[in-house]
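Message: I would value a second opinion on how I read folds in token form. Give me a protein, with the fold worked out from its sequence. Write it directly below this note and I will take it from there.
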Amino acid sequence: MASSHGSSPVPRGGRGGVCLKERDAPPARCRSARSLPDVCPKEPTGGGRGLCDGPSVVAEHDRWTVYSSKVNLPAALNDPRLAKRESDFFTKTWGLDFAETEVMPSFYLPNVTREHFAPYLQETAQKERIHERCKTICPNKDDVDAASSVDASHEKSRAELEQVPKIFMRPEFALEDSATFNSVLPWSHFNSAAGKSSRDVASSKLLQEKLSHYLDVVEVSIARQISLRSEAFFHAMSSQHELQDRLQETQRAVAVLRGRTAAIDRIMCRGPLQALRTALTRNNCARLHNKLKLMAAVHQTQPTVQLLLSTSEFVGALELISTTKEVLQQELQGIHSFRHLGSQLCELEKLIDKMMVEDFSMYARSDLNRSLRDEPLVLEKERLESLVFGLLRQRKLDFLDIYGDEMILAAKAIVSQCVAENVLNIEDIDTEVITKLADQMRLMTFPQLFELLKNIFESFLLFLQRIKATLSVIKGVLLEVLASNQRLRLLEAGAGSGAPDQEAPRGPSLPQGEAELAYLTHEGLFISDALNDARQQAAREPSPPGGREEAGGDPAGAASVGRETSYMSGDAAMPTDLELNRVINNLQELLHTASDVSHDRCVKVLTARAKDGSLERLSSAEFVCLSRAVEAFVGDTEELCSRRSVSLRGALQSQANRFVHRFHDERKTKLSLLMDNERWKQAEVPAEFQDLVDSIAEGRMELPERKVPGPEDRKPADFLLVNGQKYAVVGTVLLLIRIFLEYCQCVNDIPSIATDMLTRLSDLLKHFNSRSCQLVLGAGALQVVGLKTITTKNLALASRCLQLVVHYIPVIRGHFETKLQPKQYSVLRHFDHITKDYNDHVAEISAKLVAIMDGLFEKVLSKYEVKAPMPSACFRNVCKQMAKMHEAISELLPEEQTQMLFLRINGSFKTHLKRQLARLGVVNDGGPQHGLVGVDVAFYTENVQALKSLDRLDLNMAEIWEQKR
């Protein structure tokens, strides 16, 4: 690369006349005016030479300096030897083998960043700005001299060229143009009428000298430019001659090569290529012939399909259509005459789908609606198998839904037929007047109804046996298809692993197109020449003799494969094993559905009879007979269908549940009436209720026998004693205890209804909880019973009643647990939810009591001021309200609950007092205000601890002051 004045050492004067090498010149000293020689060629500039000296091609140039350096920039940037331009300098200096590598930084040198120079740059920034300003104002002397010499030379050359008229410099200058010629040579001055004079001769000479001068100026400029670029010009000329010589050599070599290539083509290639073309033409003709024969075979598809459909051979027709469509897509694609055949085959396939579905629906209808006693179990087994194969072939896997719909309709018809047959034998029922089956059944006596039910049960057993036999045939078809798929996979695995030809099927020995063609012939209806050609070609290939005889012995046998083989041939469109297994599972589900439908129809018969309540009026013997008949039918259907249907058993169970429902409704209504009339005042506890509670404590969960009142009866007590603990209760809770004991006694009498009774009892307990919440916390008692307000005493009494119910919930749970089966224990979780709801309700009542006092504190303490007299009226009012609260609840709640409640109330009082003191700016600094507040706090503490059972209560009044940080 060229060197520049910025990188070369330039001598400069130093101290004492010593020339120093400027190594660390600052960037501001760079001479931007002379950076042009670094990037582009520039002719040498002479010191005192001008245009007047004239060009000299052979004269020596001035002394070479660093400013005379040149570089060919396009050649440097477009070096064809290198892929990367950034490595041109190194490869040019050290050769093509030079490879630029990354130099690892030295571990001994620190990592110097710009931040290290930041202090220095800050110190010299002002000086640098001053220097730059001075440099702009006063440029360098050397730069000024060099620029002035170059400018003088250019100005002198430009001035000389400007002497030449501009017309000579124009691109369109041509003397052939008369206007241009006249402007250059004004002959009008010389063609005067008087002839040539001495003045004209002088003008002519002057014009000639002027033109000569112009020519000299231009020649001098051209000569100067040629002298400056003579070296490049001669180099280009020599390169052009060398290039022409090489082109001539290349032309001669190409001519020789072409001649040799033509000789090789004539002697060695034309003959063999002609043989290859002939063989290719023969193969193309043979393939065309085979295609034509294949087209003739495909042309016969539609007549064959119609013939197969006339005999209900759906599987064969579908296989023929599938194979033809495959041949059209692979072998005959693009044939114009068959452009509509594919769509016609698709429409034909859709038509076959509809025909198969309709035919299967007709088969199911005729099979399920025929007589149940005289005919065989399965109707037309071969027809059913053919239909199932065809539906599977078309992936119509929902055909069981059709059978299920027909099965439901047939079940309805069985009931109607049985009712009609029984009614005909009853003279008391006029079928012309009473047309509805339900009305006719309600007019039957129990023996007549029982006979009807036995006939229905027997008919449904035969009906289920027939359905099971039909579904077994369908299952056999599905299992056969699964086995076929498995064998086909084994054959394909054997063929893929290199099994011998003897173990492979006949089809793979034929080419793909001819093997597919074999399926186009169905049961020998037509045999095309294409199939014969396929056999001949297969015979020429190496295959076992037995296989060839089988392929060519009987054409009809080769085409008319069995149903299983036909199914295997179209396995690409067939259901997968997973889908087939799903259909098999659906078969079992359909049998279960049939059992459920049969039970449901029987349930409808019982329900229709029970609408007027006649079943509830049956005697115990009649109910036992009915129950045994139902249990026998249910057992037979479970054994037949392997399905435990509960609908019919549930119908009988519903009769027992009706009793439970009536029992529950009566007691829930009674409880609601009691709660709506409850005034939420403490009630006296009669002795019989205390005895009832004592019997529960002894483990007897039943109602005691009523005692005859005598003169020695005890008086009612104020509290209910439960395990030594007093409970203040309302009258409704006493009756609630008696009600849930009635539920427990009912479970003892009828254990089968334990689950239902538990659910109803849970509902009763939830109803008591929710209704008490509405009446007390929700203040509903104000409108229902006309209370003026809900007092704290009402709230405390409600809380205590809820706690009593919570005490008995585990007892009730344990009793029901003994009556339930282990698998029914999950219903006991209702008691856990109820316990949680009751406890939440009790907590809400406690929060309500605290909230009442909290609102009072906020109202009273917001007016509190720290000033005499002490104790203040505000604290006197607070202590008075605290005494009232204690008086209202102390007799109702136990001591522990009273203490916990007053601790929460005291916490609320401290919070509001602390907030008010912070608002007033009173701090515990021992000042007068602090002393006054201390007197009030001491008064409050003394009054609270003077209340009953609160003497040992730790009020911790120090928390009212802000903690010092």
Remarks:
- The radius of gyration is 60 Å.
- Strands lie at 11-13, 19-21, 720-722, 725-727.
- Residues 521 and 527 are 6 Å apart (CA to CA).
